[in-house]
Amino acid sequence: MKRSAASTVPLALVLIAVATTAAAADMTGASNYLVYVEPHPPGVDCQAYQLGILAAALGGEAQAKAAMLYNYRNVMSGFSARLTPPELEAVKKQPQVSRVLPSATLSLMSSKFDGVS
């Protein structure tokens, strides 16, 4: 049986992921970010700890609750938030923040390879 040229392409080349911004910036220039923070201290509620870090950067709990999209506590310590450029800079200055990355969605360029879909 003759194989097509496409079926001889190594699987690794077919499964290259492309990063795209999860959400386009809105009119205020806000975008979604993943904020990695130091683990919460023992006996302190994880979500309250992370909300406190964001509130300190944004100037209040109401602003932090509006900006926070999700908090992570099992695999990593951090949260995702929708931030404007000035808010992003304020978050980066918080001593508990170790890293901030733009939120991204990864998608396959193709899911069809060697006859499997």
TrEMBL record:
Record keywords, A-Z: Signal
Domain Inhibitor I9: 57-108
Transcription regulation recorded as keyword: no
InterPro entries noted in UniProt: S8pro/Inhibitor_I9, S8pro/Inhibitor_I9_sf
Signal peptide annotation: 1-24
Single GO term (MF): endopeptidase inhibitor activity
The keyword Signal belongs to this UniProt entry's keyword annotation: yes
Gene3D superfamilies (UniProt xref): Peptidase S8 propeptide/proteinase inhibitor I9
Protein name per Swiss-Prot or TrEMBL: Pi starvation-induced protein
Gene this protein is translated from: LOC100283269
